[in-house]
Design a protein that fits this description.
homodimer; alpha/beta; 9 helices; 46% helix; DNA-binding
DNA sequence: ATATCAATACCTGATTACAGGTAATTTTGG
DNA sequence: CCAAAATTACCTGTAATCAGGTATTGATAT
């Protein structure tokens, strides 16, 4: 029987080696390559693409989501499984939109990873249930698309004036959005907003 | 020959299992236990303490540094090796002060981890060289004690007025410090300061 | 000893943020 | 189609930040 060929991408060498050993301990898996950065993978041409790519979301420079899109375009037959430190709606949604096949936590057991891979190879999708909007308590999911956009620009250190220019809207509008963001997140300054965003890995 | 007994502590199950396999692949190492939190380890009483504890720095609630102090007090004969995602002066200094025996990156190879453990068991210390103050380029190490203190209060979302009250100094002084921090870090707003601090894991 | 740095404090003016409204238009979902 | 939500915009006043100085005192290091 042919083994399931796997490529790993994570910025930490120890994780790569650990994961490799976990997978290789089963006869059915074969880790054919691993990469410490998206760029290195992109510099490689697979003559026969692997059955599965295992990606971390948070890798420097080019993140896992972008890498997933690249992979899915270049090797449409390969599956992609995210293994991430943090499982939140933003990440899971982004992974789904990038056409990934699964998203699991680094908090999973080795057993669960193996099961997930087998399942994905049978064309199943493995995603955590998204937290319900209405029962959410962190306010983040109540933010509109525009508010999230402005939030990012505030974090980037831009003033309301510059944000207004960039989005071709009034400075008043930007400040209204800012106020609404603050209300929804129950905070009262940009500094607190930036803290909130970092805590939620945005 | 007696094997080197090891206990692992990390908040991610996959890392624990990977590390365990890496170490167990050599006959000389034996992972006798692993824990996903400091609390769980603290709830355990080792009749014969392990030769070595491998700790992550950033584990929730009770961090690795505090755990190291606890371990060194309760099991003085055991060694402690930190394996951390981020290697910076703050972390390394804290580890040294907590009487740890080594500090290596999660970016290390499996081979290097094993070598480090062997070395530590021979009473050597394994620490990265601290970045030289004068040749530092990130500006962080050029900050004075007072500036670092004020930086933390800014990040906590406090105004200059409140910081002044808290430190029993003038509001003008706080703003002078703020300006000097900005100059040294080459930034121009509190939002950028908070971003900088998060990027440097402060 | 003296030069450098840390910590302190003050001044001014401009800009920005924050809090508290109100309100019109458009989009979206049921 | 209609209600709710999103996006837009404006007004006012207060508070805070930011940028540009100057200057004194004490510690520290060569």
């Amino acid at each position: 029987m042919k083994k399931i060929s796997i490529v790993l991408v994570d910025d930490h060498q120890l994780f790569l080696e650990g994961m490799e050993r976990i997978l290789e301990s089963e006869n059915e898996f074969s880790v054919i390559n691993n990469f410490q950065s998206s760029e290195k993978l992109m510099a490689t041409n697979f003559v026969s693409p692997p059955d599965l790519f295992v990606l971390d979301v948070e890798i420097p420079v080019i993140n896992g989501i972008a890498l997933c899109q690249y992979i899915k375009e270049k090797y449409p037959s390969s599956k992609v499984l995210f293994v991430s430190m943090y499982v939140n709606n933003q990440f899971v949604r982004a992974a789904k939109e990038a056409d990934a096949d699964g998203f699991i936590s680094k908090n999973s057991s080795a057993q669960y990873v193996k099961q997930s891979i087998r399942s994905i190879l049978c064309d199943n999708k493995i995603f955590p249930a998204l937290i319900n909007k209405t029962t959410s308590n962190n306010g983040l999911l109540m933010l509109s698309k525009r508010e999230k956009e402005i939030m990012q620009l505030i974090k980037a250190g831009k003033t309301s004036k510059k944000i207004a220019e960039e989005l071709f809207i009034s400075e008043f509008t930007v400040e209204t959005h800012r106020k609404n963001i603050f209300k929804k997140l129950k905070i009262e300054s940009s500094v607190q907003l930036v803290n909130f965003m970092h805590e939620h890995h945005m």
